[in-house]
Design goal:
Shape: extended
Structural class: alpha+beta
Strand content: 5-15%
Helix content: 25-40%
Largest sheet: 2 strands, antiparallel
Length: 127
Amino acid sequence: NNFWKVFRTELDKRPGGAAAHGITKLELVNFDKISDHIEAKREQIKNMDKEEKKAKKEAYARFKRDFEYCLWDGRLEKLSGCVVEPPGLFRGRGEHPKQGMWKKRVFPEDVTINVGENDVVPEPPAG
């Protein structure tokens, strides 16, 4: 199981490793707090009224509009990857060999923006 391999590796980086925490099998890990948090977020979104949902959707559309296109040789070109995915489990499609692996968080210093040598590098959005 890919998830267990990655999870075990991360636990082993902690003081004392996985054995110090008494975790020898995935079944011994209690994910209830994480599950409760995800369910609370889901409920929060579900309980938003129409105007809040619409405002959130419009804000995201404005954000994408600002970062989804670039000017290349005088032409406006659409970018294919203007949003970085949050960390989480890689799901893949079908029987992907990396299914269940942990996608790590991408930090601003991990991103390379391909601009000209003399061009000003744009400031990242807040957050």
